[in-house]
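quick one
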Amino acid sequence: MKILLDTSSFRHNTLENNYEGTYRIAGLQANIDTQEHIQWEDYLSLIHTQRHIHKIKRSCQNSKILAEVQLTPESYNAACRAVGLSILASQQNDFAIVRPPWHHAFRELASWFCFFNNIAIAAQKLVNEWKKVAIIDIDGHHGDGTQRIFFETDQVYFTSIHQVGVFPWTGYQYETWRWKGVWYTKNFPLEKWASDKDFLYAFDEALSHIKDFNPDIVGVSVGFDGYYKDRALGMDFSLELYREVWKRFSQNFENIFAVLEGGYHEDIKECIDMFLDGINS
Ligand SMILES: [Zn+2]
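structure w/ zinc ion:
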């Protein structure tokens, strides 16, 4: 697994608010240097309506504020590139480090820094190629957009481990869907101050459900806002947790790709390094 990072991610939302900003990927080096986004723009409609796509594009062109972000024309390029890198990651078992994030984006709604749902687009493309896809969201927030997009379908399994009782105020255990004895939507809400042990307990159960589903490929929404230094959430995960998480992923599944979600602190690079370290440990 290698990192895919594009220069456009450094040019979106450069004003820096208290949460989402370019500081999150500081210290990481872009390794893909192209501005071409037209080919990726075509994939947006795999999930999103034309009305939504045009709204985001117009908002970027007119530098509007949307989903708590000051958009610029560069933002649309970054969003399309983020979709492209997520698709590439899904084809190569890589880790797309992208901004803007995406798991709060619905088919026709942008929300909390998210405009297009990258992992949903990558997953739908795989489904269209007759692949069975599981998505596990380990961002500290519930992946409400991704859950809604794939709710009540047997094509994509979705599971999320997150802090409960905070934005987006969803992700309870009763939000679930099971068909013929197999889970297709499953939430693992954790309390504030949840520890590595609490996370791994839920994580192991989530992995066993994914194995029951028996996917061809697993997509991981990776957010680092469960980390103890995070400003948005109150969980208590250590750096070492991320090594353990990827170690268990690679012990259980052959085809895995990952896409960066949230994480609002200065140690994102360290978290990513630790995450990748888990592959070989
Ligand atoms: Zn988050």
